[in-house]
Amino acid sequence: MSHDSTPTPLTSSMGTPLTGTIRVPGDKSISHRSLMFGALAIGRTTVKGLLESEDVLATGNAMRAVGATIEKQADGSYTVDGIGLGSLLEPEHVIDFGNAGTGVRLTMGIFGSHNIAATFVGDASLSKRPMGRVLNPLRDMGTNVIAREGDRLPASIRGPEQALPLTYRVPMPSAQVKSAVLLAGLNAPGETTVIEPIPTRDHTEKMLKGFGADISVSLNEAGERVIRLQGQPELKPQDIDVPGDPSSAGFPLVAALIIPGSDITIENVLLNEHRTGLITTLIEMGGDIQIVNRRETGGEDVGDLRVKASKLKGITVPASRAPSMIDEYPVLAVAAAFAEGDTFMPGLDELRVKESDRLAAVARGLEANGVPCIETEDTLTVTGGANDIGGGTVVTHLDHRIAMSFLVLGMAAAKPVTVDDGAVIATSFPTFTELFEGLGARISAQPSEAA
Ligand SMILES: O=C(O)C1=C[C@@H](OP(=O)(O)O)[C@@H](O)[C@H](O)C1
Ligand SMILES: C=C(OP(=O)(O)O)C(=O)O
Protein backbone atom coordinates (compact mmCIF):
# COMPACT_ATOMS: atom_id res chain seq x y z
CA MET A 1 0.00 0.00 0.00
CA SER A 2 1.21 3.51 -0.73
CA HIS A 3 1.09 6.61 1.44
CA ASP A 4 1.94 8.97 -1.37
CA SER A 5 -1.50 10.68 -1.34
CA THR A 6 -3.50 11.44 1.83
CA PRO A 7 -1.46 12.52 4.85
CA THR A 8 -3.23 12.29 8.23
CA PRO A 9 -1.74 14.73 10.75
CA LEU A 10 -1.82 13.61 14.39
CA THR A 11 -1.16 15.62 17.56
CA SER A 12 -0.14 14.29 20.96
CA SER A 13 -0.26 16.21 24.22
CA MET A 14 0.41 15.68 27.88
CA GLY A 15 -2.15 13.36 29.48
CA THR A 16 -2.22 11.32 32.66
CA PRO A 17 0.71 9.11 33.71
CA LEU A 18 0.85 5.88 31.66
CA THR A 19 -0.30 2.83 33.58
CA GLY A 20 -1.28 -0.71 32.67
CA THR A 21 -0.06 -3.93 31.08
CA ILE A 22 0.22 -4.22 27.32
CA ARG A 23 1.54 -6.41 24.54
CA VAL A 24 3.01 -4.88 21.40
CA PRO A 25 2.39 -6.57 18.01
CA GLY A 26 4.64 -9.32 16.66
CA ASP A 27 8.22 -8.72 15.59
CA LYS A 28 8.46 -7.33 12.05
CA SER A 29 11.73 -9.08 11.13
CA ILE A 30 10.46 -12.50 12.24
CA SER A 31 7.04 -11.93 10.64
CA HIS A 32 8.53 -11.19 7.18
CA ARG A 33 10.77 -14.25 7.43
CA SER A 34 7.95 -16.55 8.63
CA LEU A 35 5.99 -15.88 5.44
CA MET A 36 9.06 -16.11 3.20
CA PHE A 37 10.49 -19.32 4.65
CA GLY A 38 7.01 -20.84 4.93
CA ALA A 39 6.61 -20.19 1.18
CA LEU A 40 9.92 -21.95 0.45
CA ALA A 41 9.10 -25.03 2.54
CA ILE A 42 7.00 -27.91 1.26
CA GLY A 43 3.86 -28.27 3.38
CA ARG A 44 2.00 -26.12 5.89
CA THR A 45 3.69 -23.62 8.21
CA THR A 46 1.57 -22.02 10.93
CA VAL A 47 2.32 -18.56 12.30
CA LYS A 48 0.85 -17.24 15.56
CA GLY A 49 1.21 -13.58 16.45
CA LEU A 50 2.11 -12.45 12.92
CA LEU A 51 2.49 -8.66 12.69
CA GLU A 52 -0.43 -7.56 10.50
CA SER A 53 1.20 -4.37 9.26
CA GLU A 54 1.41 -3.04 5.71
CA ASP A 55 5.06 -4.08 5.29
CA VAL A 56 4.41 -7.68 6.30
CA LEU A 57 1.19 -7.93 4.28
CA ALA A 58 3.18 -6.78 1.22
CA THR A 59 5.57 -9.69 1.78
CA GLY A 60 2.56 -12.03 2.00
CA ASN A 61 1.33 -10.79 -1.38
CA ALA A 62 4.78 -11.28 -2.92
CA MET A 63 4.88 -14.89 -1.70
CA ARG A 64 1.36 -15.47 -3.06
CA ALA A 65 2.53 -14.11 -6.43
CA VAL A 66 5.04 -16.98 -6.72
CA GLY A 67 2.55 -19.65 -5.73
CA ALA A 68 2.29 -19.83 -1.93
CA THR A 69 -1.15 -19.96 -0.31
CA ILE A 70 -1.38 -17.74 2.78
CA GLU A 71 -4.58 -17.63 4.80
CA LYS A 72 -5.75 -16.13 8.06
CA GLN A 73 -7.50 -18.68 10.27
CA ALA A 74 -10.47 -18.13 12.60
CA ASP A 75 -8.17 -18.09 15.67
CA GLY A 76 -6.12 -15.21 14.19
CA SER A 77 -3.13 -17.36 13.22
CA TYR A 78 -1.87 -17.63 9.63
CA THR A 79 -1.15 -20.71 7.54
CA VAL A 80 1.39 -20.72 4.75
CA ASP A 81 1.25 -23.57 2.26
CA GLY A 82 4.67 -23.49 0.64
CA ILE A 83 5.55 -24.34 -2.94
CA GLY A 84 9.09 -25.41 -2.19
CA LEU A 85 12.50 -23.98 -2.96
CA GLY A 86 13.31 -24.12 -6.69
CA SER A 87 9.63 -24.30 -7.67
CA LEU A 88 8.62 -20.64 -7.53
CA LEU A 89 6.18 -19.57 -10.26
CA GLU A 90 6.84 -16.43 -12.28
CA PRO A 91 4.70 -13.55 -10.90
CA GLU A 92 2.01 -12.37 -13.33
CA HIS A 93 2.10 -8.78 -12.12
CA VAL A 94 4.40 -6.13 -10.71
CA ILE A 95 5.23 -6.67 -7.00
CA ASP A 96 4.44 -3.55 -4.92
CA PHE A 97 6.38 -3.47 -1.65
CA GLY A 98 5.01 -0.11 -0.49
CA ASN A 99 7.34 1.16 2.28
CA ALA A 100 9.07 -2.16 3.11
CA GLY A 101 12.86 -2.26 2.78
CA THR A 102 13.21 -5.65 4.46
CA GLY A 103 10.41 -7.10 2.35
CA VAL A 104 11.80 -6.03 -1.01
CA ARG A 105 15.49 -6.72 -0.30
CA LEU A 106 14.97 -10.22 1.10
CA THR A 107 12.50 -11.08 -1.66
CA MET A 108 14.97 -9.94 -4.32
CA GLY A 109 17.40 -12.43 -2.75
CA ILE A 110 14.86 -15.27 -2.89
CA PHE A 111 13.62 -14.58 -6.45
CA GLY A 112 17.10 -13.63 -7.72
CA SER A 113 18.41 -17.20 -7.75
CA HIS A 114 15.28 -18.58 -9.42
CA ASN A 115 14.94 -18.58 -13.18
CA ILE A 116 11.90 -16.26 -13.17
CA ALA A 117 11.45 -12.58 -14.02
CA ALA A 118 9.99 -10.14 -11.48
CA THR A 119 9.50 -6.38 -11.28
CA PHE A 120 9.49 -4.53 -7.95
CA VAL A 121 8.04 -1.12 -7.14
CA GLY A 122 7.56 0.81 -3.90
CA ASP A 123 6.30 4.11 -2.51
CA ALA A 124 8.20 7.41 -2.77
CA SER A 125 10.29 6.52 0.30
CA LEU A 126 11.29 3.01 -0.84
CA SER A 127 12.01 4.31 -4.35
CA LYS A 128 14.76 6.55 -2.93
CA ARG A 129 16.52 3.79 -0.99
CA PRO A 130 19.65 2.05 -2.30
CA MET A 131 19.06 -1.43 -3.74
CA GLY A 132 22.59 -1.87 -5.16
CA ARG A 133 23.69 -3.31 -1.82
CA VAL A 134 21.52 -6.36 -2.65
CA LEU A 135 21.54 -6.23 -6.47
CA ASN A 136 25.37 -6.25 -6.70
CA PRO A 137 25.90 -9.61 -4.96
CA LEU A 138 22.94 -10.97 -6.94
CA ARG A 139 24.66 -9.90 -10.18
CA ASP A 140 27.71 -11.87 -8.96
CA MET A 141 25.45 -14.91 -8.59
CA GLY A 142 24.26 -14.56 -12.19
CA THR A 143 21.06 -12.51 -11.82
CA ASN A 144 20.18 -10.04 -14.59
CA VAL A 145 19.07 -6.67 -13.28
CA ILE A 146 17.51 -3.59 -14.83
CA ALA A 147 17.04 -0.81 -12.30
CA ARG A 148 16.57 2.92 -12.23
CA GLU A 149 19.58 5.25 -11.91
CA GLY A 150 21.61 4.47 -8.76
CA ASP A 151 20.03 1.01 -8.47
CA ARG A 152 16.75 2.41 -7.15
CA LEU A 153 13.22 1.03 -7.64
CA PRO A 154 11.46 0.29 -9.91
CA ALA A 155 13.75 -2.65 -10.68
CA SER A 156 13.36 -5.86 -12.65
CA ILE A 157 15.37 -9.02 -12.13
CA ARG A 158 15.66 -12.37 -13.86
CA GLY A 159 17.52 -15.18 -12.15
CA PRO A 160 19.88 -17.47 -14.10
CA GLU A 161 19.12 -21.08 -14.98
CA GLN A 162 21.52 -22.06 -12.23
CA ALA A 163 22.75 -19.51 -9.70
CA LEU A 164 26.41 -19.47 -8.66
CA PRO A 165 27.17 -19.88 -4.95
CA LEU A 166 29.05 -16.90 -3.56
CA THR A 167 31.48 -15.94 -0.84
CA TYR A 168 30.53 -12.44 0.20
CA ARG A 169 31.83 -10.01 2.81
CA VAL A 170 29.01 -7.66 3.79
CA PRO A 171 30.38 -4.13 3.27
CA MET A 172 28.02 -2.33 5.68
CA PRO A 173 26.36 -3.55 8.89
CA SER A 174 23.10 -4.77 7.35
CA ALA A 175 21.02 -7.79 8.23
CA GLN A 176 19.03 -7.20 5.05
CA VAL A 177 22.10 -7.58 2.82
CA LYS A 178 23.36 -10.60 4.76
CA SER A 179 19.92 -12.19 4.51
CA ALA A 180 19.44 -11.46 0.81
CA VAL A 181 22.73 -13.21 -0.07
CA LEU A 182 21.92 -16.21 2.14
CA LEU A 183 18.42 -16.49 0.70
CA ALA A 184 19.77 -16.37 -2.85
CA GLY A 185 22.30 -19.02 -1.80
CA LEU A 186 19.46 -21.33 -0.82
CA ASN A 187 18.78 -22.07 -4.49
CA ALA A 188 22.43 -22.21 -5.63
CA PRO A 189 24.24 -25.57 -5.66
CA GLY A 190 27.17 -25.81 -3.21
CA GLU A 191 28.18 -23.53 -0.36
CA THR A 192 27.35 -19.84 -0.01
CA THR A 193 29.45 -18.07 2.61
CA VAL A 194 28.69 -14.70 4.13
CA ILE A 195 31.32 -12.92 6.21
CA GLU A 196 29.90 -10.38 8.60
CA PRO A 197 32.55 -8.07 10.10
CA ILE A 198 29.98 -6.34 12.33
CA PRO A 199 27.27 -8.61 13.78
CA THR A 200 23.64 -7.74 12.98
CA ARG A 201 20.29 -9.35 13.85
CA ASP A 202 20.52 -13.10 13.26
CA HIS A 203 16.90 -14.07 12.58
CA THR A 204 17.67 -15.41 9.10
CA GLU A 205 20.37 -17.77 10.37
CA LYS A 206 18.32 -18.97 13.34
CA MET A 207 15.08 -19.43 11.46
CA LEU A 208 16.65 -21.14 8.42
CA LYS A 209 18.19 -23.65 10.80
CA GLY A 210 14.75 -24.20 12.33
CA PHE A 211 13.35 -24.83 8.81
CA GLY A 212 15.98 -27.55 8.33
CA ALA A 213 18.69 -25.77 6.31
CA ASP A 214 22.32 -26.83 6.76
CA ILE A 215 23.73 -23.56 8.06
CA SER A 216 26.55 -22.92 10.51
CA VAL A 217 28.02 -19.84 12.14
CA SER A 218 31.62 -19.55 13.35
CA LEU A 219 34.17 -16.82 14.02
CA ASN A 220 37.29 -16.40 11.87
CA GLU A 221 40.73 -15.29 13.17
CA ALA A 222 39.71 -11.66 12.79
CA GLY A 223 36.69 -12.29 15.03
CA GLU A 224 34.23 -11.87 12.14
CA ARG A 225 31.09 -13.99 11.91
CA VAL A 226 31.30 -16.51 9.07
CA ILE A 227 27.98 -18.01 7.98
CA ARG A 228 28.09 -21.09 5.77
CA LEU A 229 24.99 -22.32 3.99
CA GLN A 230 24.72 -25.50 1.91
CA GLY A 231 22.50 -24.81 -1.09
CA GLN A 232 19.34 -26.59 -2.24
CA PRO A 233 18.09 -28.03 1.05
CA GLU A 234 14.56 -29.31 1.45
CA LEU A 235 12.98 -26.88 3.86
CA LYS A 236 10.48 -28.34 6.32
CA PRO A 237 7.42 -26.39 7.50
CA GLN A 238 7.43 -25.00 11.05
CA ASP A 239 5.01 -23.82 13.75
CA ILE A 240 6.08 -20.30 14.65
CA ASP A 241 5.02 -18.13 17.59
CA VAL A 242 6.17 -14.55 16.88
CA PRO A 243 7.23 -12.65 20.03
CA GLY A 244 6.50 -8.93 20.56
CA ASP A 245 8.63 -6.51 18.54
CA PRO A 246 11.33 -4.82 20.67
CA SER A 247 11.47 -1.94 18.16
CA SER A 248 7.74 -1.28 18.68
CA ALA A 249 8.16 -1.77 22.45
CA GLY A 250 10.67 1.10 22.35
CA PHE A 251 7.83 3.64 22.06
CA PRO A 252 5.86 2.77 25.24
CA LEU A 253 9.19 2.07 26.95
CA VAL A 254 10.54 5.57 26.36
CA ALA A 255 7.12 7.18 26.96
CA ALA A 256 6.80 5.53 30.38
CA LEU A 257 10.31 6.66 31.38
CA ILE A 258 9.71 10.33 30.48
CA ILE A 259 6.06 10.84 31.55
CA PRO A 260 6.16 11.50 35.32
CA GLY A 261 4.31 8.97 37.50
CA SER A 262 4.14 6.25 34.81
CA ASP A 263 4.40 2.56 35.62
CA ILE A 264 3.72 0.02 32.85
CA THR A 265 4.48 -3.58 31.95
CA ILE A 266 5.14 -4.64 28.35
CA GLU A 267 4.71 -8.40 28.10
CA ASN A 268 6.29 -10.96 25.78
CA VAL A 269 9.03 -8.79 24.21
CA LEU A 270 11.71 -10.41 22.02
CA LEU A 271 15.06 -10.08 23.82
CA ASN A 272 17.42 -11.43 21.15
CA GLU A 273 20.88 -10.01 22.01
CA HIS A 274 21.09 -8.31 18.59
CA ARG A 275 17.94 -6.31 19.32
CA THR A 276 18.32 -5.08 22.91
CA GLY A 277 20.64 -2.08 22.47
CA LEU A 278 17.90 0.42 23.38
CA ILE A 279 17.12 -1.31 26.68
CA THR A 280 20.84 -1.42 27.59
CA THR A 281 21.23 2.26 26.71
CA LEU A 282 18.18 3.44 28.64
CA ILE A 283 19.29 1.49 31.73
CA GLU A 284 22.72 3.19 31.46
CA MET A 285 20.89 6.53 31.31
CA GLY A 286 19.24 5.71 34.64
CA GLY A 287 15.98 4.21 33.38
CA ASP A 288 14.09 1.99 35.83
CA ILE A 289 13.53 -1.04 33.59
CA GLN A 290 13.21 -4.51 35.06
CA ILE A 291 13.24 -7.56 32.84
CA VAL A 292 11.00 -10.15 34.45
CA ASN A 293 9.73 -13.60 33.52
CA ARG A 294 12.65 -14.23 31.14
CA ARG A 295 12.02 -17.37 29.11
CA GLU A 296 12.72 -19.03 25.78
CA THR A 297 10.07 -19.36 23.05
CA GLY A 298 10.84 -21.03 19.73
CA GLY A 299 14.61 -20.59 20.18
CA GLU A 300 14.37 -16.88 21.07
CA ASP A 301 14.75 -15.12 24.45
CA VAL A 302 11.63 -13.24 25.50
CA GLY A 303 10.61 -11.46 28.69
CA ASP A 304 8.33 -8.83 30.21
CA LEU A 305 9.52 -5.25 30.78
CA ARG A 306 8.37 -3.38 33.92
CA VAL A 307 9.08 0.30 33.29
CA LYS A 308 8.70 3.22 35.73
CA ALA A 309 9.17 6.94 35.14
CA SER A 310 12.80 7.87 35.81
CA LYS A 311 15.19 10.76 35.98
CA LEU A 312 17.49 10.18 32.99
CA LYS A 313 21.03 11.45 32.40
CA GLY A 314 22.84 11.93 29.09
CA ILE A 315 25.51 9.40 28.06
CA THR A 316 27.70 8.45 25.09
CA VAL A 317 26.17 5.52 23.24
CA PRO A 318 28.96 3.27 21.90
CA ALA A 319 29.00 3.20 18.07
CA SER A 320 29.46 -0.60 18.25
CA ARG A 321 25.96 -0.85 19.73
CA ALA A 322 24.30 0.74 16.69
CA PRO A 323 23.29 -2.48 14.85
CA SER A 324 21.46 -3.76 17.95
CA MET A 325 19.30 -0.62 18.13
CA ILE A 326 19.44 0.74 14.59
CA ASP A 327 15.69 1.45 14.32
CA GLU A 328 15.50 2.86 17.86
CA TYR A 329 17.66 6.00 17.51
CA PRO A 330 14.72 8.30 16.74
CA VAL A 331 12.95 7.35 19.97
CA LEU A 332 16.24 7.36 21.90
CA ALA A 333 16.74 10.95 20.74
CA VAL A 334 13.34 11.74 22.29
CA ALA A 335 14.41 10.15 25.60
CA ALA A 336 17.62 12.22 25.39
CA ALA A 337 15.54 15.43 25.17
CA PHE A 338 14.34 14.68 28.72
CA ALA A 339 17.73 13.60 30.12
CA GLU A 340 20.04 15.82 32.08
CA GLY A 341 23.02 16.91 29.91
CA ASP A 342 24.18 15.72 26.51
CA THR A 343 23.54 12.36 24.86
CA PHE A 344 26.12 11.66 22.15
CA MET A 345 25.26 9.09 19.47
CA PRO A 346 28.10 8.23 17.05
CA GLY A 347 28.16 5.65 14.23
CA LEU A 348 24.82 6.61 12.66
CA ASP A 349 25.68 6.56 8.93
CA GLU A 350 23.13 3.80 8.18
CA LEU A 351 20.35 6.05 9.50
CA ARG A 352 20.72 8.15 6.35
CA VAL A 353 19.33 5.34 4.14
CA LYS A 354 16.25 4.26 6.10
CA GLU A 355 12.63 5.18 5.24
CA SER A 356 13.89 8.78 5.46
CA ASP A 357 17.28 10.29 6.16
CA ARG A 358 16.55 9.62 9.83
CA LEU A 359 19.49 11.57 11.17
CA ALA A 360 18.29 14.74 9.43
CA ALA A 361 14.60 14.03 10.11
CA VAL A 362 15.24 13.61 13.85
CA ALA A 363 17.42 16.74 14.05
CA ARG A 364 14.79 18.86 12.19
CA GLY A 365 12.02 17.46 14.40
CA LEU A 366 13.91 18.25 17.61
CA GLU A 367 14.72 21.77 16.38
CA ALA A 368 11.07 22.38 15.46
CA ASN A 369 10.21 21.61 19.08
CA GLY A 370 12.93 23.67 20.77
CA VAL A 371 15.26 20.78 21.68
CA PRO A 372 18.93 21.73 21.12
CA CYS A 373 20.88 19.21 19.00
CA ILE A 374 23.92 18.99 16.74
CA GLU A 375 23.94 16.80 13.64
CA THR A 376 27.16 15.81 11.84
CA GLU A 377 27.63 13.40 8.93
CA ASP A 378 27.26 10.36 11.23
CA THR A 379 26.60 11.60 14.77
CA LEU A 380 23.84 13.25 16.75
CA THR A 381 24.16 15.09 20.06
CA VAL A 382 21.00 15.97 21.94
CA THR A 383 21.03 18.37 24.88
CA GLY A 384 18.30 17.45 27.31
CA GLY A 385 16.40 19.39 29.93
CA ALA A 386 15.31 22.45 27.92
CA ASN A 387 12.15 24.10 29.30
CA ASP A 388 8.98 24.71 27.42
CA ILE A 389 9.65 22.27 24.57
CA GLY A 390 7.08 21.10 22.01
CA GLY A 391 4.68 23.17 19.95
CA GLY A 392 6.21 22.19 16.60
CA THR A 393 5.07 20.29 13.52
CA VAL A 394 7.33 17.45 12.43
CA VAL A 395 7.81 16.41 8.81
CA THR A 396 7.71 12.60 8.76
CA HIS A 397 8.92 11.97 5.16
CA LEU A 398 6.86 8.72 4.96
CA ASP A 399 8.79 7.38 7.97
CA HIS A 400 6.73 5.51 10.58
CA ARG A 401 9.44 5.70 13.25
CA ILE A 402 9.74 9.49 12.91
CA ALA A 403 5.95 9.79 13.31
CA MET A 404 5.77 7.54 16.40
CA SER A 405 8.89 9.01 18.06
CA PHE A 406 7.64 12.59 17.88
CA LEU A 407 4.18 11.60 19.11
CA VAL A 408 6.00 10.22 22.17
CA LEU A 409 7.79 13.59 22.52
CA GLY A 410 4.43 15.37 22.56
CA MET A 411 3.13 13.11 25.36
CA ALA A 412 5.77 14.46 27.74
CA ALA A 413 6.51 17.96 26.38
CA ALA A 414 5.11 21.22 27.77
CA LYS A 415 3.32 21.94 24.48
CA PRO A 416 1.58 19.53 22.03
CA VAL A 417 3.51 18.09 19.09
CA THR A 418 2.02 17.50 15.63
CA VAL A 419 3.33 15.02 13.06
CA ASP A 420 2.34 15.83 9.49
CA ASP A 421 1.36 12.24 8.66
CA GLY A 422 0.25 9.54 11.08
CA ALA A 423 -1.01 7.16 8.36
CA VAL A 424 2.54 5.84 7.85
CA ILE A 425 2.45 4.26 11.32
CA ALA A 426 0.54 1.34 9.74
CA THR A 427 3.85 0.30 8.18
CA SER A 428 4.93 -1.42 11.41
CA PHE A 429 2.54 -0.69 14.31
CA PRO A 430 -1.10 -0.31 13.17
CA THR A 431 -2.44 -0.42 16.76
CA PHE A 432 -0.10 2.33 18.05
CA THR A 433 -2.77 4.95 18.77
CA GLU A 434 -5.29 2.68 20.48
CA LEU A 435 -2.58 1.00 22.53
CA PHE A 436 -1.26 4.37 23.79
CA GLU A 437 -4.77 5.68 24.45
CA GLY A 438 -5.39 2.57 26.56
CA LEU A 439 -2.36 3.51 28.70
CA GLY A 440 -3.70 7.06 29.21
CA ALA A 441 -1.98 9.01 26.41
CA ARG A 442 -3.68 11.74 24.37
CA ILE A 443 -3.43 11.54 20.57
CA SER A 444 -5.86 13.37 18.32
CA ALA A 445 -6.37 13.72 14.58
CA GLN A 446 -5.74 17.19 13.19
CA PRO A 447 -7.24 18.65 10.05
CA SER A 448 -4.58 18.68 7.34
CA GLU A 449 -3.25 22.17 6.50
CA ALA A 450 -4.18 21.58 2.89
CA ALA A 451 -7.82 20.76 3.78
O1 LIG B 1 16.68 -7.67 8.56
C1 LIG B 1 15.74 -7.01 9.06
O2 LIG B 1 14.64 -7.54 9.37
C2 LIG B 1 15.96 -5.57 9.32
C3 LIG B 1 17.22 -5.05 9.26
C4 LIG B 1 17.53 -3.64 9.50
O3 LIG B 1 17.86 -3.03 8.26
P1 LIG B 1 19.37 -3.01 7.65
O4 LIG B 1 19.78 -4.37 7.39
O5 LIG B 1 19.24 -2.21 6.37
O6 LIG B 1 20.18 -2.31 8.69
C5 LIG B 1 16.38 -2.87 10.14
O7 LIG B 1 16.59 -1.49 10.02
C6 LIG B 1 15.05 -3.25 9.53
O8 LIG B 1 13.99 -2.57 10.18
C7 LIG B 1 14.79 -4.74 9.68
C1 LIG C 1 14.21 0.46 8.64
C2 LIG C 1 13.02 -0.11 8.85
O1 LIG C 1 12.39 -1.00 8.01
P1 LIG C 1 12.66 -1.43 6.51
O2 LIG C 1 14.11 -1.25 6.19
O3 LIG C 1 12.20 -2.84 6.46
O4 LIG C 1 11.80 -0.55 5.63
C3 LIG C 1 12.28 0.15 10.12
O5 LIG C 1 11.27 -0.55 10.34
O6 LIG C 1 12.64 1.04 10.91
Automatic annotation (TrEMBL):
The keyword Amino-acid biosynthesis applies. It catalyses: 3-phosphoshikimate + phosphoenolpyruvate = 5-O-(1-carboxyvinyl)-3-phosphoshikimate + phosphate. GO terms for molecular function: 3-phosphoshikimate 1-carboxyvinyltransferase activity. Pathway: Metabolic intermediate biosynthesis; chorismate biosynthesis; chorismate from D-erythrose 4-phosphate and phosphoenolpyruvate: step 6/7. The keyword Transferase applies. PROSITE patterns: EPSP_SYNTHASE_1, EPSP_SYNTHASE_2. Residues 15-434 form the Enolpyruvate transferase domain. Residues 1-19 have a biased composition (Polar residues). Phosphoenolpyruvate binds at residues 28, 101, 129, 176, 358, 401. InterPro entries: Enolpyruvate_Tfrase_dom, Enolpyruvate_Tfrase_sf, EPSP_synthase, EPSP_synthase_CS, RNA3'P_cycl/enolpyr_Trfase_a/b. Its EC number is 2.5.1.19. Its main location: cytoplasm. It is found in: Cytoplasm. 3-phosphoshikimate binds at residues 28-29, 33, 174, 176, 327, 354. Keywords: Amino-acid biosynthesis, Aromatic amino acid biosynthesis, Cytoplasm, Transferase. Residues 1-23 are annotated as: Disordered. Belongs to the EPSP synthase family. This is 3-phosphoshikimate 1-carboxyvinyltransferase. The lineage of its organism: Bacteria, Pseudomonadati, Pseudomonadota, Alphaproteobacteria, Hyphomicrobiales.
